[in-house]
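anyone else get weird line breaks when pasting these?? whatever heres mine. first is seq + tokens for prot A
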Amino acid sequence: MAVALNDIIKHFAQSTIQFTDLFMSRVKAGGSDGNRYTAPKVSGLVITVSGSATFSLNGVAYPLHKGHILHAGPHMLIQIEAANDIAWEYIVIHYETVRSVIDIEQQHFLIETGENHKIDYFAQQLVQLDQHPGDFLRLKTHVTFFQLLETMMACAKMQTTNNIVDQAVALFAENYTQPISIADIAERVGCERRRFAYLFDKQLGMSPVQYLTELRLKQAKKLLRTTTMPVSKVAEVVGYHDSFYFCRVFKKQYQLTPTEFRNLKY
């Protein structure tokens, strides 16, 4: 089944998850394996080491090879058919979701990352670290697990990168201090406004307006923390020429006025 990349990223970024265990396995060339179930109570990531196979979960078939990583939910029926030319070797990494924000840990879906040596490296590091006892190595295992997830998500985003959105992000960074509009940016990247908003949201998970607002407010926070610049001047520097409107937007985002935020002790 298809799950939006932004939802996958949100799951790994905002849910409370932890590495539990892993194993490596192999299916001979032309061989099969199945009539068994994925582990109960945990989710898994199936990462190809070499070869290729068709991996079915609850009757849904996925082509697996380097560059395709399969996410499996708990207690799902497995059927594997390895390709005829070479044995399929793979790693299954289990993780537990302690607190879920989006409920996709129970689902099966494909993550298209493209081939990337860092994914291979972190997966093999996990295999090596998981063989040894000790709290320090256990800590290192957890860190490596999240490095693997970060690399996977970065690679997956690169597979769907849209040049129009990249151009727009650069234009926002260059012009957020000016009274620019979304229509202006859409015109400059050569895209109809509605189409531009759709592509932007699809890639970044937020509307162009939300992105511009967050960009401006993050810059405002930096100025409030690091300078004694009056609030009205901060508003102007980050692109708000109405300081009262700036204060309303800031409070809506952070539940504090700019002055209250500046007076917080860090």
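and prot B, same format (seq, then tokens)
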Amino acid sequence: MKVLDNCLNSSTEQTVFELDVYQCGHEKCNPGHSYGYAIRDHYLIHYIVGGCGEYNVGGRKYELSKGDGFLICPSVSTMYKASMKNPWEYFWIGFYGTEAKKILEMANLGPNNVIFHNDDKVIKELLSKMYHTLKDPNCPEIETLGYLYIFLSKLIKQYKFQNKSKHNNANYVEKAINYVKCNYSRDLTIQELADFIGVDRSQLFRLFKLQTNISPQQYIINYRIAKACELIKTTNLSVEEIARSVGFKYPSYFFRIFKRETAMTPLQYKNKTCDNNLRKG
């Protein structure tokens, strides 16, 4: 185990900077190697570059592997342990300062979110540079600190990108849903819907499943059946007229889909609705 401490001021009243490196290290763990439960008086980030292991905090266990990282917050009891079969290798960086908490929050890291994943090879390179600059007695502290700021900025950029992607995905689905609501009454295809929002069919399917937990085709069916139910309850239109009004070209197909989705035929649904209205009256 290689650990480097940065004890720059041995006096009892050490200056607290906005952000400062406390320690940096690298270790290829032996099978089952563990540390804790214990608390720290500073922030500590481990980044896994190989193998796997587990991180335990707040009654939860996280199984982690290459590309994963975990945060240890001050005064929080934690334990981490290398796998017996494939023990992990990691870098770690300990830091503190008046701005540490705020900077971590910008990367969506804190007591309630202690895990991140980043496959960017630059992350490993930055931690390696931090380790070697801290080891070099001729290297100024500001260089190590600079690498720490770049490392944290990478985590912040990653979070902002992921957050923006989620927002964009939601916008795509919202746009698609609005299009369905305006065009459900005609022969609307999935390809047409994908073309309208500017994605391919497979991406449209993935986005819909992610945001609504159903496929775009099922959403169209659900919306058409809901509209058909409204027409059955509020008009005296025939089944054929209702089918065409909600986008079904063939009444026989509408009849089959309606029964599949509601477990009733259109006539049974109408009779049930009328019975319910009579009871209310």
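btw re prot B: The longest helix spans residues 141-183. The longest strand covers residues 20-28.
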